[in-house]
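Long-time lurker. I teach an intro course on protein structure, and each term I like to show students one example going from raw sequence to a predicted 3D structure in token notation. This year I'd like something fresh instead of my usual example. Would anyone be willing to generate the tokens for the chain below so I can use it in lecture? Attribution to the forum is fine with me.
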Amino acid sequence: HSYLGALIEARWATARALKHQASVVPFFEQVRLTRTCSVTREYYEALRPFADETSPTRNLAKIEREIARLTVVAARFNASTRSELESALSYLTAATENDIQASAFRLEALIELYHESGDFDHLRAALHFAKLNTVPSNDWPLWHTSVAEATLCIVQDTSETARPKFIRIAYDT
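-- Reply from a regular --
Happy to contribute to a lecture. Here you go:
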């Protein structure tokens, strides 16, 4: 092993440890969670040039999906920028074909983009995407919570006469 090779391996190990830490930090510890997501995201961004398409855990698609997931989790606490969310959405859009969990984060990214921009098209896209995709079961809370939030955002910002339509959409989804 060369020095550079050993350093890169140490960075991969650190990124994996940070990813694990980000998955176990309780949501009520917002500062710790957002900082962990941010640092983990930076590690993965730095490791992008060292992606290995032959590796199941180090390929570029996995790295981008993890960056996107961390971006969305941090966005829950206003710790992601609009451009970061847009990048995350593009990664998640590419990943949704093969990854049902990426679909839930895609919905959430669209909702966070709505909160960031106020653009209703993001909510419409979220509900349209939800309508076209079925989830494995009702035991998948992130998906259902995201669909409910998108619908409630639209209902809150629509006229009283249009609200029943959106409530029916949410009920049918």
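Some talking points for your students: The mean pLDDT is 87. The helical segments are 3-24, 30-47, 60-75, 82-95, 100-117, 120-132, 141-156, 163-172.
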